[in-house]
Structures are given as C-alpha cells and as structure tokens.
Amino acid sequence: MPRIIKHPELRREELLDHAQTLFLTHGYDKASLNDVIATAGISKGAFYHYFASKEALLEALAERFARQALAGVQDVLGDPALDPLGRLNALLAKSRQAKVETAAEAWTLFETMFRPENLVLFHRINVAANAAFSPLLVEIIKQGVADGTFRTFDPEGVADIVMQFGLATHDVIAKAFAGGSDADMDIAIETLERRVRLYEIALDRILGLPDGSIRIGEPGYVRAVMTARRASPSSSVAAAASKARRM
Amino acid sequence: MPRIIKHPELRREELLDHAQTLFLTHGYDKASLNDVIATAGISKGAFYHYFASKEALLEALAERFARQALAGVQDVLGDPALDPLGRLNALLAKSRQAKVETAAEAWTLFETMFRPENLVLFHRINVAANAAFSPLLVEIIKQGVADGTFRTFDPEGVADIVMQFGLATHDVIAKAFAGGSDADMDIAIETLERRVRLYEIALDRILGLPDGSIRIGEPGYVRAVMTARRASPSSSVAAAASKARRM
DNA sequence: CTATTATACCGACCGACGGTCTATTCTCAA
DNA sequence: TTGAGAATAGACCGTCGGTCGGTATAATAG
C-alpha cells in the first residue's frame, strides 16, 4: 500500500468522521476497528498512533459532539434581551437541533442515535454533553431563582433533572422507532408528542412556573421529523452503508 | 472431564446465578463466556444447549431480575387498606430494596450495579423492570386521578417519568461512587440525599400533590447505605472475586 | 548539504473472544 | 431392549482489539 501522509489534525478529524458514521450506522460494538481503518484508508499502526484504544476513539467522538453542541448554543447565552425563562427555552430548543437543519437530517440522526445498539455511544455523548451544559443551565436557573421567575431550590439538582429528561427521552424515542408498520408509527408519533408536552409541564411544575411556560420544541416538530422518513424511504444511512460494506 | 448431569431447570438457574455474579463483578463485556462456564463447571456445548448466545443470557438475567422485583412488591398491590398515594409510596420504597435486607447488602448491590462498565446490564434490567412495573404504576396513578388524589393527565406518561427517575438516578449514584477519598464520599452523600428529596418534590409537583407527599425512601436511607461501605472495607465482591479469578 | 532525531505510517502477528460442530453419554418411553 | 432425543464435552473457527518491529517522511542541527 502506498504511504500517504496527511496533516495530523486533519487525519484525526477524518478518523473521527469515519468512526462517527460507522458507530452510528452499526453501533459501537458491531463496528470493528478494522472497519474504521479500512474506511479511513489507514493501517492499524497509524490508528494507534492517534488513539490509545477503540474506547479512546469513542470518548474523543463524544467530546467532539458535546463541543459542537455547546458551540451551537453559545449565542443564546450572550443575548441580554432574554429573561431566564426565554433563555432556558432557547437553550432547550437549540440543543435539540444543533448541527441539524432539515427535518430529514434530524430523522436520520434520531433513527441512528436511538437504535438499541447505540446505547453506549449515546450514553457517552450524553455524559460529555451534560458536563458541558450543566454550568450554563445552573447559571440560568440561579438567575431565574434570584429574580423570582423560578420557585425552586437546589439549582444544580434541577439542572440535572432538566438534562436527564433528555436522557429519559431515549427509550421513548427508541420505542417510537421500534414499531414496524405506518399505523404503529402514527400511534408512536402521537404518544411522543403527548410525552413531550408532559415533560414540558413536568418542568414547569418543578420550576414553579405556570403550566405551558416551558417549550422544549415547537409544536408539530416531532411529527415533522418523524414523517420525514417517508420522504427518504428505505435508503437510510444504515442500508446504504451496509451495502457498501460487504463488497 | 467427568460428565455431570443435572436437572435442566436447576442447571439453568445455576448458570444465571454464576452469570449474575460475574456480570456484576466484572461487567457484561469483560466477563467472558469462558469465565461463566468455568465458574459453572460446564462445557461450551452445555452452555449453548441452554442459551442461544451470550446476549440471550443477559436477557434472561434481566428478566429474572424483573420477575423477582415484581414478586417482592405484589403484596403492596393487594392491600386494600392503602390509598393511591400510600400504594405509590410503598411501591417506591419496596422496589428499591427488593431482595436486599441489610444496608451492607444494598451497598454491595449499588457498588456493582452502578459501575460504568455495568451500564449495559443495568439498562437491560431497567427495560425489563419497566415493562413489568409500568402496568402497576399506571393502574395506581389512574386510581389516584379518579379519586382526586393526583391532579395530572396522561397516566402512562407519568408512570414513565416515575420509572425513568429511577434510571436517571444511575449517573448521580455512579458519581457518588466515583469519588475516591472519604471527604468526597461525604459530599457525595449529601448531594445524593438532597437529590432524592428533589426527586420526591418533583414527583409531588408532577402529580399535583403538596410538597412532601412522595417518599422514595426513608430519610437517612442513603447515608445508611453509603456508610455501610466502611463496615465492609476493601473486601468487596469485586476484589475478592478478581483475586479468585486469576489463579 | 548531510546526519540525526522525531513523527507518521505500515502490516504481520498475538491471545482471547463468542460461537459452531461433531462426537459421546445419559434418560426414558415404547 | 432399544432407539430417539436430551445433555454434555471439547476441539475448532473466524474475528476482534491490541502489540510490535520496522520503514518512510518531515523537521532540525551541525
């Protein structure tokens, strides 16, 4: 094999890119290191020059995810026009769609992220993201408590609950994707939308706000994402990639 | 090796017992099938006569956990003296200590169950347990809504939130065990107790109850469990088993 | 313009893993 | 008594994550 030398940082990012695709497509466990290095077109030795282990690769990937999500949300915090509730709502809305423009993109991300075999990957990302977001959330909640918008105690704890609602969504969403038929899907969408409303009200009440104050996403967002599947039929990332793989 | 034949059901239970010990001690991934069959004293062939795969073993283990937890809680439901709130509190208290008598036992279970390498195992158990407990919870909440005790809608959703608070506890507890020094531990215990109180109030508010109605566990329970470590020092299951293993 | 060192990369190799297969022994109903 | 099938044994297989000795290129010093 010819020897190709690239800028280390570029090479590292490339590795993360290919790992991201493969981990999301096949799951962390099922995607082998050989797959990663074959896709990236490098040798085992080169890989272990950049990462100490497969696990370290996963960790770096989770960190990059968290960093990107954090970057996509920074502007909300600088905006002095927003009160604590507005800031919190903006944060909740943004954090769900950072780096995702269209509903179809969101669907692809969801469909892969919430597959059962991606539990480990998802959890790592969540831990990294929580570590990054927690201070921001705590700050917002403290502000809200200080100016009387929120009526609660233990801002750190509340921030944890807010973020773990995101984690709790995992199984709910996973179930929505587990259903086979389109009829199942319709029921799943309704359940999912009702569940999101319920989470919103739960947060309202925990924060001592009137019902309807918190908005996790625009109404209809769930339906928009979930119905985007029919636009991009069975040609999901998974199918396309697994076809390319065994050849 | 001499050929030993046992009653199939006994053999199966034995396999689950040994798998439980090893999975909790070393984690699902790190505990190898060879470890399991060596501990159980049987051959590969015998193992694959009882389980289709390592994953099937995990699944069966999770099911057994859920079944046992459910059994330990059945009496609460039959008690006609309890109102919905009492029933819910009893369920929350019982489900946390089914099959666990002493604080030391609870500590050992926690210390193993919440180790990061046991995420997969923990998640499987949680999924199985949720599937088993969900109908019970829904029924209780429906009763409470019907007789005016709870003021909420979407009982299924609320039941999900209640149970996922259990799941959300994972990382909080995991952090508590991650700390090294005893000083860390003291802080972790305080955080943990405050967090439990917060979860209780969150549930109160979600269910439309006055603060202080829900009781996840008796006050001081967390401290009792966590300080039980010092009683049974480094001779944890993990240390003892890993010593016995590499010989 | 060398000589030297550090960095990026290669790929054969390793032990351990989960899983398969064939062979053997035991049980028990007909 | 026998034969079908359940229960057990263990050699074997492909693949996995990871290691290692080595090579080519880039960077630096003399």
TrEMBL record, chains A, B:
PROSITE patterns: HTH_TETR_1 (PS01081), HTH_TETR_2 (PS50977). SUPFAM superfamilies: Homeodomain-like. Residues 9-69 form the HTH tetR-type domain. Residues 32-51 bind DNA. Pfam families: TetR_N. Keywords: DNA-binding, Transcription, Transcription regulation. The keyword Transcription applies. One of its GO terms (molecular function) is DNA-binding transcription factor activity. The keyword Transcription regulation applies. Gene3D superfamilies: Tetracycline Repressor, domain 2. This is Putative transcriptional regulator. The lineage of its organism: Bacteria, Pseudomonadati, Pseudomonadota, Alphaproteobacteria, Hyphomicrobiales.
